[in-house]
Amino acid sequence: MPSRLQELFARPGPVFGGWVVGPTDIGPEEFARAGYGYVGFDVQHGYLSDAGAAQLIRRLEHLPIATVVRLPNADAAPIGRVLDAGADGVVIAMVESPDQARAAVAATRYAPSGVRSFGPLRAGLGHDPSELEARVSVFAMIETAQGLGAVEDIAAVPGLTGLYVGPADLAISLGYGLAQAWTEPTVVDAMGRVRAAAEAAGLLSGIHAGDGRIGKAAVAKGFRMITLASESQALRRGATEHLREASGDGPSASTPGGYG
Predict the structure, then answer these.
(1) pLDDT mean across residues, the chain
(2) Active-site residue identified among 45, 62, 208, 242
(3) What percentage of residues in the chain have a pLDDT greater than 90?
(4) Distance CA 112, CA 129 (A)
(5) What pLDDT is recorded for position 254?
(6) Which candidate, 78, 32, 34, 94, places its Cα nearest to that of 59?
(7) The total number of structural domains that make up the chain
(8) Rounded distance, CA 98 to CA 247, Å?
(9) What's the burial of 23, exposed, middle or buried (CB within 10 Å: 0-12/13-18/19+)?
(10) How far apart are CA 106 and CA 225, in angstroms?
(11) Long-range CB contact pairs, 172-180, < 8 A, 24+
(12) Could you tell me which of 134, 122, 119, 11 has the C-alpha nearest to residue 59?
Protein backbone atom coordinates (compact mmCIF):
# COMPACT_ATOMS: atom_id res chain seq x y z
CA MET A 1 0.00 0.00 0.00
CA PRO A 2 1.45 3.42 -0.91
CA SER A 3 2.19 5.90 1.84
CA ARG A 4 0.24 9.14 2.22
CA LEU A 5 3.22 10.99 0.79
CA GLN A 6 3.31 8.77 -2.29
CA GLU A 7 -0.41 9.27 -2.79
CA LEU A 8 0.07 13.05 -2.71
CA PHE A 9 2.78 12.98 -5.36
CA ALA A 10 0.80 10.63 -7.57
CA ARG A 11 -1.38 13.67 -8.34
CA PRO A 12 -0.22 16.62 -10.41
CA GLY A 13 0.80 19.92 -8.86
CA PRO A 14 2.78 21.10 -5.84
CA VAL A 15 2.50 19.67 -2.33
CA PHE A 16 2.95 22.06 0.60
CA GLY A 17 4.29 21.06 3.98
CA GLY A 18 4.76 22.40 7.46
CA TRP A 19 7.80 21.96 9.66
CA VAL A 20 8.16 21.02 13.31
CA VAL A 21 11.31 21.86 15.27
CA GLY A 22 10.20 21.15 18.85
CA PRO A 23 8.32 18.58 20.95
CA THR A 24 4.78 19.74 20.27
CA ASP A 25 1.58 17.71 19.93
CA ILE A 26 -0.41 20.70 18.72
CA GLY A 27 1.75 21.84 15.81
CA PRO A 28 1.42 18.75 13.58
CA GLU A 29 -2.32 18.55 14.21
CA GLU A 30 -2.82 22.20 13.31
CA PHE A 31 -0.89 21.75 10.05
CA ALA A 32 -3.22 18.86 9.25
CA ARG A 33 -6.31 20.94 10.11
CA ALA A 34 -5.03 23.77 7.90
CA GLY A 35 -4.80 21.45 4.90
CA TYR A 36 -1.05 21.00 4.59
CA GLY A 37 -0.03 17.88 2.68
CA TYR A 38 2.82 16.82 4.94
CA VAL A 39 4.65 17.76 8.09
CA GLY A 40 8.42 17.52 8.44
CA PHE A 41 10.14 16.82 11.75
CA ASP A 42 13.58 18.37 12.13
CA VAL A 43 16.12 16.16 13.85
CA GLN A 44 19.02 18.14 12.37
CA HIS A 45 18.38 21.68 13.65
CA GLY A 46 15.34 21.35 15.90
CA TYR A 47 14.85 20.31 19.51
CA LEU A 48 13.82 16.79 18.56
CA SER A 49 15.66 13.50 18.76
CA ASP A 50 14.79 10.71 16.38
CA ALA A 51 12.98 9.00 19.26
CA GLY A 52 10.99 12.18 19.94
CA ALA A 53 10.07 12.50 16.28
CA ALA A 54 8.99 8.85 16.25
CA GLN A 55 6.64 9.48 19.18
CA LEU A 56 5.04 12.44 17.41
CA ILE A 57 4.65 10.44 14.19
CA ARG A 58 2.82 7.66 16.04
CA ARG A 59 0.23 10.19 17.24
CA LEU A 60 -0.52 11.25 13.65
CA GLU A 61 -1.46 7.79 12.44
CA HIS A 62 -5.15 8.65 12.03
CA LEU A 63 -4.77 12.22 10.75
CA PRO A 64 -4.81 13.01 7.03
CA ILE A 65 -1.25 14.25 6.74
CA ALA A 66 1.98 12.68 5.48
CA THR A 67 5.16 12.70 7.54
CA VAL A 68 8.86 13.13 6.73
CA VAL A 69 11.87 13.43 9.01
CA ARG A 70 15.03 15.39 8.31
CA LEU A 71 18.11 13.71 9.74
CA PRO A 72 21.68 15.06 9.82
CA ASN A 73 23.25 12.07 8.07
CA ALA A 74 22.64 8.55 6.77
CA ASP A 75 23.16 6.76 10.09
CA ALA A 76 20.96 3.67 9.77
CA ALA A 77 19.79 3.43 13.40
CA PRO A 78 17.87 6.73 13.69
CA ILE A 79 16.55 6.37 10.14
CA GLY A 80 15.22 2.94 11.04
CA ARG A 81 13.56 4.20 14.21
CA VAL A 82 11.53 6.92 12.49
CA LEU A 83 10.54 4.55 9.68
CA ASP A 84 9.51 1.89 12.20
CA ALA A 85 7.21 4.51 13.75
CA GLY A 86 5.57 5.07 10.37
CA ALA A 87 7.36 8.04 8.79
CA ASP A 88 6.55 8.19 5.10
CA GLY A 89 9.97 9.48 4.17
CA VAL A 90 13.34 10.80 5.26
CA VAL A 91 15.28 13.87 4.12
CA ILE A 92 19.01 13.38 4.58
CA ALA A 93 20.92 16.62 5.11
CA MET A 94 24.26 17.67 3.57
CA VAL A 95 24.48 14.98 0.89
CA GLU A 96 27.58 15.73 -1.16
CA SER A 97 28.35 12.52 -3.03
CA PRO A 98 26.68 9.50 -4.64
CA ASP A 99 28.18 7.31 -1.88
CA GLN A 100 26.33 9.31 0.78
CA ALA A 101 23.12 9.04 -1.23
CA ARG A 102 23.61 5.28 -1.57
CA ALA A 103 24.12 5.02 2.20
CA ALA A 104 20.85 6.90 2.76
CA VAL A 105 18.95 4.51 0.50
CA ALA A 106 20.60 1.47 2.11
CA ALA A 107 19.43 2.66 5.55
CA THR A 108 15.83 2.35 4.36
CA ARG A 109 16.23 -1.13 2.82
CA TYR A 110 16.50 -4.55 4.44
CA ALA A 111 19.16 -7.12 3.59
CA PRO A 112 20.43 -8.06 1.11
CA SER A 113 19.89 -4.68 -0.57
CA GLY A 114 20.34 -2.55 2.54
CA VAL A 115 21.24 -2.35 6.22
CA ARG A 116 17.89 -1.56 7.87
CA SER A 117 17.03 -3.70 10.89
CA PHE A 118 13.53 -5.19 11.01
CA GLY A 119 11.28 -3.89 13.78
CA PRO A 120 8.09 -2.04 12.78
CA LEU A 121 6.46 -0.34 15.77
CA ARG A 122 3.10 0.54 14.23
CA ALA A 123 0.74 -2.38 13.75
CA GLY A 124 -0.92 -0.80 10.74
CA LEU A 125 2.32 -0.98 8.78
CA GLY A 126 2.18 -4.76 8.55
CA HIS A 127 5.18 -7.09 8.63
CA ASP A 128 6.07 -7.63 4.98
CA PRO A 129 9.63 -6.30 4.45
CA SER A 130 9.03 -5.61 0.77
CA GLU A 131 5.92 -3.54 1.53
CA LEU A 132 7.69 -1.66 4.32
CA GLU A 133 10.50 -0.78 1.92
CA ALA A 134 8.16 0.21 -0.90
CA ARG A 135 6.33 2.84 1.16
CA VAL A 136 9.49 4.79 2.07
CA SER A 137 10.53 7.96 0.21
CA VAL A 138 14.17 9.03 0.37
CA PHE A 139 15.28 12.61 -0.35
CA ALA A 140 18.90 13.72 -0.64
CA MET A 141 19.36 17.28 0.53
CA ILE A 142 21.57 19.40 -1.76
CA GLU A 143 22.82 22.41 0.18
CA THR A 144 26.55 22.79 -0.42
CA ALA A 145 28.77 23.71 -3.33
CA GLN A 146 30.20 20.19 -3.27
CA GLY A 147 26.76 18.61 -3.38
CA LEU A 148 25.78 20.93 -6.21
CA GLY A 149 28.87 19.89 -8.18
CA ALA A 150 27.88 16.24 -7.88
CA VAL A 151 24.13 16.71 -8.19
CA GLU A 152 23.67 14.85 -11.48
CA ASP A 153 25.62 11.85 -10.16
CA ILE A 154 23.67 11.94 -6.89
CA ALA A 155 20.38 12.02 -8.80
CA ALA A 156 21.43 8.85 -10.65
CA VAL A 157 21.61 6.77 -7.43
CA PRO A 158 18.96 4.00 -7.56
CA GLY A 159 16.31 4.17 -4.85
CA LEU A 160 16.22 7.92 -4.36
CA THR A 161 12.80 9.54 -4.48
CA GLY A 162 13.92 13.11 -4.85
CA LEU A 163 16.37 15.94 -4.30
CA TYR A 164 15.60 18.60 -1.70
CA VAL A 165 17.22 22.05 -1.73
CA GLY A 166 18.38 23.80 1.44
CA PRO A 167 18.58 27.45 0.27
CA ALA A 168 20.20 28.87 3.41
CA ASP A 169 23.20 26.55 3.52
CA LEU A 170 23.46 26.56 -0.27
CA ALA A 171 23.72 30.35 -0.30
CA ILE A 172 26.34 30.32 2.47
CA SER A 173 28.34 27.60 0.75
CA LEU A 174 28.37 29.60 -2.48
CA GLY A 175 29.66 32.67 -0.65
CA TYR A 176 26.46 34.69 -0.17
CA GLY A 177 24.35 35.82 2.77
CA LEU A 178 21.06 34.34 3.89
CA ALA A 179 19.13 37.35 2.60
CA GLN A 180 20.50 36.65 -0.89
CA ALA A 181 19.31 33.07 -1.10
CA TRP A 182 16.33 33.94 -3.30
CA THR A 183 17.71 37.04 -5.02
CA GLU A 184 21.32 36.31 -5.98
CA PRO A 185 21.34 34.89 -9.54
CA THR A 186 24.14 32.42 -8.74
CA VAL A 187 22.12 30.86 -5.92
CA VAL A 188 18.85 30.94 -7.86
CA ASP A 189 20.58 29.27 -10.82
CA ALA A 190 22.00 26.63 -8.46
CA MET A 191 18.50 25.84 -7.20
CA GLY A 192 17.38 25.52 -10.79
CA ARG A 193 20.22 23.11 -11.50
CA VAL A 194 19.09 20.86 -8.64
CA ARG A 195 15.50 20.91 -9.88
CA ALA A 196 16.62 20.14 -13.43
CA ALA A 197 18.82 17.26 -12.26
CA ALA A 198 15.90 15.77 -10.35
CA GLU A 199 13.55 16.12 -13.29
CA ALA A 200 16.06 14.59 -15.73
CA ALA A 201 16.44 11.57 -13.43
CA GLY A 202 12.70 11.15 -12.92
CA LEU A 203 12.88 12.30 -9.30
CA LEU A 204 10.82 14.75 -7.28
CA SER A 205 12.25 18.18 -6.52
CA GLY A 206 11.74 19.70 -3.09
CA ILE A 207 12.80 22.90 -1.37
CA HIS A 208 12.66 24.69 1.97
CA ALA A 209 10.79 27.95 1.36
CA GLY A 210 10.06 29.38 4.80
CA ASP A 211 6.94 31.38 3.95
CA GLY A 212 4.06 31.51 1.51
CA ARG A 213 5.50 34.23 -0.70
CA ILE A 214 8.68 32.27 -1.36
CA GLY A 215 6.62 29.09 -1.61
CA LYS A 216 4.69 30.63 -4.49
CA ALA A 217 7.99 31.53 -6.20
CA ALA A 218 9.18 27.95 -5.72
CA VAL A 219 6.06 26.65 -7.45
CA ALA A 220 6.77 28.98 -10.38
CA LYS A 221 10.28 27.53 -10.60
CA GLY A 222 8.88 24.02 -10.93
CA PHE A 223 9.44 22.57 -7.45
CA ARG A 224 6.82 20.08 -6.28
CA MET A 225 7.62 19.49 -2.59
CA ILE A 226 7.62 22.85 -0.84
CA THR A 227 8.04 23.31 2.89
CA LEU A 228 6.50 26.53 4.17
CA ALA A 229 6.60 27.70 7.79
CA SER A 230 7.70 25.86 10.92
CA GLU A 231 5.32 25.74 13.87
CA SER A 232 7.38 28.40 15.64
CA GLN A 233 7.26 30.71 12.60
CA ALA A 234 3.52 30.18 12.20
CA LEU A 235 2.95 30.94 15.89
CA ARG A 236 5.11 34.07 15.75
CA ARG A 237 3.33 35.36 12.65
CA GLY A 238 -0.13 34.65 14.03
CA ALA A 239 0.66 36.09 17.44
CA THR A 240 2.11 39.24 15.89
CA GLU A 241 -0.91 39.70 13.66
CA HIS A 242 -3.32 39.31 16.60
CA LEU A 243 -1.35 41.90 18.55
CA ARG A 244 -1.32 44.27 15.56
CA GLU A 245 -5.08 43.93 15.14
CA ALA A 246 -5.70 44.53 18.83
CA SER A 247 -3.44 47.56 19.08
CA GLY A 248 -4.51 49.00 15.76
CA ASP A 249 -1.04 49.85 14.58
CA GLY A 250 2.33 48.35 13.75
CA PRO A 251 3.49 46.42 10.70
CA SER A 252 2.22 43.00 9.75
CA ALA A 253 4.49 40.13 10.68
CA SER A 254 7.08 38.94 8.25
CA THR A 255 8.35 35.41 8.31
CA PRO A 256 12.06 34.65 7.96
CA GLY A 257 13.26 31.86 5.73
CA GLY A 258 13.74 29.25 8.45
CA TYR A 259 16.23 26.41 8.53
CA GLY A 260 16.93 25.07 5.08
Answers:
(1) 93
(2) 45
(3) 81
(4) 11
(5) 47
(6) 32
(7) 1
(8) 54
(9) middle
(10) 23
(11) 173/143, 173/144, 173/145, 173/146, 173/148, 174/145, 174/148, 178/257
(12) 122
- Give a yes or no: residue 253 inside a domain: no
pLDDT at 223 over 50: yes
In this structure, is the dihedral angle defined by the CA atoms of residues 134, 86, 48 and 31, taken in order, positive or negative? positive
Residue 257 lies in a domain: no
In which domain, by residue range, is 115 found?
A: 4-247
| pTM (global) more than 0.85 | yes
Q: Is residue 254 one of the residues assigned to a domain?
A: no
Query: pLDDT category, 200, cuts 50, 70, 90?
Result: very high
User: Is 127 a catalytic site residue?
Assistant: no
Tell me the pLDDT tens digit for each residue of 176-190: 999 999 999 999 999
Name, in order, each residue with C-beta under 8 angstroms of 125's C-beta and a sequence gap of 6 or more: 86, 132, 135
- The CA dihedral of 187, 9, 135, 68, to the nearest 10 degrees, is 50
The single-letter DSSP state of residue 237 is H
Residues 137, 90: Cα–Cα separation, whole Å: 6
